[in-house]
Amino acid sequence: xxxxxxxxxxxxxxxxxxxxxxxxxxxxxxxxxxxxxxxxxxxxxxxxxxxxxxxxxxxxxxxxxxxxxxxxxxxxxxxxxxxxxxxxxxxxxxxxxxxxxxxxxxxxxxxxxxxxxxxxxxxxxxxxxxxxxxxxxx
Length: 138
What we know:
Blueprint: H1 3-96, E1 128-131, E2 134-137
């Protein structure tokens, strides 16, 4: 064999090794790309599921917030009504104590509805008894 043929064999062998190395590198690259795509798809699935869970949670929170707002409105309305009743009750107590102008006088406010057993009964009060036929006045 001539040195030229030997060199061609060596060059062919190097080409073959390089070709095999390139094929192996391309295969590894394809596998790496495939794994990367699989990881990205897994992340898409994970974050889509998380987004859906958060949307459900947000929807529930918004519903609970709306319910609380409604309850808060009702409670504010009740508070205003009770404040008006208290103001009127204080007015009546002031008038009842003889102030005349509806202002509560200095000292202890006596609220007759809190201790009905201590209330003074007017002399001309009517007693009412109920019966199956209706009410009877004595």
